[in-house]
Amino acid sequence: MAQIKLSNLRHSYQPNPASDADYALKKIDLTWDDGGAYALLGPSGCGKSTLLNIISGLLVPSEGKILFNDQDVTSLPPAKRNIAQVFQFPVIYDTMTVYDNLAFPLRNRGRDEDTVKRRVAAIAEMLEVSDMLKVRAANLSPDNKQKISMGRGLIREDVNVVMFDEPLTVIDPHLKWKLRSKLKELHQRVKATMIYVTHDQTEALTFADQVVVMQDGEVVQIGTPVELFERPAHTFVGHFIGSPGMNVLPCDVQNGAAFFRGEKVALEGPVTAAGDGTAEIGVRPEFVKVSANGAGIAAKVRKVADIGRHKVVEAIAHDMRINAILEGEAPNAGDDVMLDFKQSQTRLYKDGWLASQPEGGAR
């Protein structure tokens, strides 16, 4: 396995890029440790696949270097990088048996049959397909075909990294959770460096120890799932992660205090960024308290969605929509309510970036 380092990396599909807008990938400096589970998360077109193709060697970056264990592999072709890749659609041979599909990457590299037998048995046991080894791949269900495709990526013990490019896209929703759980279990057992590319926050947050969130070719935050949820470094992260996402409200900043439509909103702590950038308040729906006559901002309930384990209340205050997540009783559509934001979870953002810190210092 390998530590992967991206140094001063940028890429443009244009021959003579003149500005940041011409780059599909903005400047990226990033290190993934050996044996870690990582995810690249972001919407379509944000640069995830471009970055994956650069790491795999299918693209040569316009600028910067890719290092595997401090070895510069920037100009090496894919075959020289010793990687395995699992794609959206299962890459298997329908006319071969499951055993022969799993064995193919090893046989292709001249491994002896004893090694092939040992590795196929081990991977088949991990994937829970030992009873299918004699079955032709054409007769498998879509989820089992993708299992075999994953197994082909994991069968070699000498790979530097295993990369997954949205591998659950074609899997039925009721089966996705099984494969997500299986993939997480496989990582814990084989300890390979794994990079998982997806636009699905659930897939990223359940698989990865560290998630890289991308927007418009830029890395906007790197962190654990808990860090991304509890302290978004950018309003995009707050909006993209969570269901519903973070409430983002316009505000004015005067003497270090934030005002939403003239009403003062208590922040987590001091404002850390000066300047005249666009100021916004960010607070997740989980930290909005709704009451009939308590403290806070006056609002009117627009609708209430009961999704079983909790209710999502959508209210309107000063012509702005504010969501709250409640457990237990909830108001009805049309009710007048008061919205109170939990101060320790209410933050200021300037030009999208976090601009406040908790009382007592940054964390």
Automatic annotation (TrEMBL):
Localisation per UniProt entry: Cell inner membrane
Stored InterPro entries: AAA+_ATPase, ABC_transporter-like_ATP-bd, ABC_transpr_FbpC, ABC_transpr_MalK/UgpC-like, Mo/tungstate-bd_C_term_dom, NA-bd_OB-fold, OB_MalK-like, P-loop_NTPase
UniProt-listed PROSITE patterns: ABC_TRANSPORTER_2
Pfam families, sorted: ABC_tran, OB_MalK
EC number(s) on file: 3.6.3.20
Enzyme class: hydrolase
Annotated membrane topology: Peripheral membrane protein
GO cellular component, as recorded: ATP-binding cassette (ABC) transporter complex, substrate-binding subunit-containing
GO molecular function: ABC-type ferric iron transporter activity; ATP binding; ATP hydrolysis activity
Recorded family membership: Belongs to the ABC transporter superfamily.
Official protein name in the record: sn-glycerol-3-phosphate import ATP-binding protein UgpC
Species the sequence originates in: Roseibium aggregatum
